[in-house]
Design brief:
The structure is a single chain. This protein is an alpha+beta fold. It has two domains: 1-77; 121-185 and 201-423, Alpha-Beta Complex (phage-related protein like fold), CATH 3.90.1690. Helix content is 37%, strand content 22%. The chain has helices spanning 2-21, 28-64, 71-77, 82-91, 96-111, 123-127, 152-158, 161-165, 222-227, 233-254, 283-294, 309-317; strands at 119-121, 168-170, 177-184, 203-209, 212-221, 270-271, 303-307, 336-337, 340-344, 352-354, 357-368, 372-376, 380-385, 394-407, 413-420. Strands 6, 7, 8, 9, 10, 11 and 15 form a seven-stranded mixed beta sheet that branches. The longest helix is centred in the N-terminal third of the chain and has 37 residues, at 28-64. It is elongated, with a radius of gyration of 28 Å.
Length: 423
């Protein structure tokens, strides 16, 4: 934003003036420079106030149009640098746009009754832009080339299969929610001219949506961080985006301990069973998955299948009927099954148990993916730990974020959870 650029310029001039103020005596050229700085700083004060006023009006207009920020602010926020913010924390000199966003995150968390423990990245900047040992990132990892920086949450969503299938996303939530939905659909009945109307019989229930903590960390060479903030920006963001994307996508599909319930663990989704000990999937099972959604009048919207690579291989190896050359899943069509969009990911479990089939069953899911909602709660809190790994000249960066997922209507989905696909 223009006001932030002006503030950065003002901070630079003020720092120069402080250096002059600390001198015992000024020579003539320094006196002249002092006077010039006085004028420039006062002029910048006026420009900052003018730009802030313009930006507030633009923001109000954007909100009236249903936008989070104005188009101009969105462009300005794309300048936010994750690495520059980390550098600022390490140096004790967090300033400019990164400081503005940190202060905005503090205000956002305070409004929720919480606190920011490290570097705060507010939800507006995010959209604009368990222990697991990982390899350390060194300056010799790979050639680093600067590309356009995108918003953290937008980039994360773009990588998620559930979102690609049509799942909805909401960001910047400020507290736990209880979302009402119709549990039983209303019905109408014919009646004579003066008879009482029949009870529609509709009922409602609520869906609880609560913030669940998702965290990860990465040890990074301190030399890398200070070598070039621009050359490593996408590399560092990408590491965290990938880690979070994988876990959020997996939890939305199959659930997670301390995390979302997950689609497969949600009650009242359609169930297509193979057998007591599981069964190899056939065309009949695929058709039954579609039927389960259709009989609940939910076969609308972003309809499609997702499964894992083993199930795709099995369906591509299975004839629609004995002796027929056509396969249940056409081998030359990777993203379409039975006329519907199809996605494949190892996030769909292939280690489920049914009867004596222990840890060998795969899931195949069909539904209206726009009825799956992935929710982000507020800011990402980044702890920059420069001490615990100091002996190795490394910095430990820890991200804490909060998420949940839920189904608008469980009847919009069906699943076969006992597909035998290993042979």
């Amino acid at each position: 934003m223009k006001s932030l650029e002006l503030k950065r310029r003002k901070e630079t001039l003020e720092a120069e003036q402080r250096n002059l103020a600390n001198k015992a005596e000024l020579v003539e050229t320094e006196k002249t420079r002092w006077d010039e700085l006085d004028v420039e700083i006062k002029n910048l004060d006026k420009e900052v106030k003018r730009e802030e006023s313009r930006e507030n009006i633009a923001r109000q207009q954007a909100e009236a149009e249903g936008k989070r920020v104005s188009d101009k602010e969105a462009k300005d926020l794309s300048l936010y640098s994750f690495v520059r913010a980390i550098q600022g924390l390490l140096n004790g000199k967090l300033d400019g746009l990164e400081r503005e966003m940190h202060e905005e995150a503090i205000r956002e968390m305070a409004a929720q009754g919480g606190v920011v423990n490290g570097l705060g990245i507010p939800s507006v900047a995010l959209r604009m832009g368990g222990y697991k040992k990982r390899a350390d990132i060194l300056t010799t990892t790979a050639p680093l080339v600067q590309t356009n920086v995108v918003g953290f949450i937008d980039a994360l969503y773009a990588k998620m299969l559930c979102v690609q299938m049509g799942a909805q996303t909401i960001s910047g939530l400020k507290g736990n929610l209880s979302i009402p939905r119709v549990a039983t659909k209303a019905t109408a009945a014919w009646a004579t001219e003066v008879a009482n109307a029949a009870d529609a019989g509709s009922d409602t229930e609520s869906v609880a949506v609560a913030a669940k903590r998702l965290a990860c960390y990465q040890d990074i060479s301190k030399q890398l961080i200070f070598q070039s903030e621009y050359s490593v920006e996408n590399l560092i963001r990408g590491l965290f985006i990938k880690a979070m994307q994988l876990e959020i996508d997996a939890a939305a599909i199959k659930g997670a301990t301390n995390g979302p319930t997950g689609l497969l663990a949600t009650t009242n989704i359609g169930d297509v069973a193979g057998g007591a000990d599981g069964l190899a999937p056939t065309l009949a099972h695929i058709l039954a998955l579609v039927k389960e959604v259709a009989i609940d009048d939910a076969d609308m919207g972003a309809l499609g299948f997702i499964t894992n690579p083993k199930a795709r291989w099995k369906l591509q190896s299975t004839a629609i009927e004995t002796g027929h050359p056509e396969r249940v899943w056409a081998p030359n069509v990777q993203d379409n099954l039975n006329g519907f969009k199809a996605g494949v990911t190892t996030q769909v479990p292939g280690n489920l148990t049914k009867g004596n089939a222990a840890g060998t069953c795969s899931a195949i899911i069909f539904g209206n993916w726009s009825d799956l909602v992935i929710a982000n709660f507020g800011i990402i809190d980044v702890t920059v730990d420069s001490t615990s790994q100091a002996l190795a000249n490394k910095v430990r960066i820890v991200l804490n974020s909060f998420w949940d997922s839920y189904l608008g209507h469980p009847s919009s989905f069906s699943a076969m959870k006992d597909a035998l696909c290993n042979s």
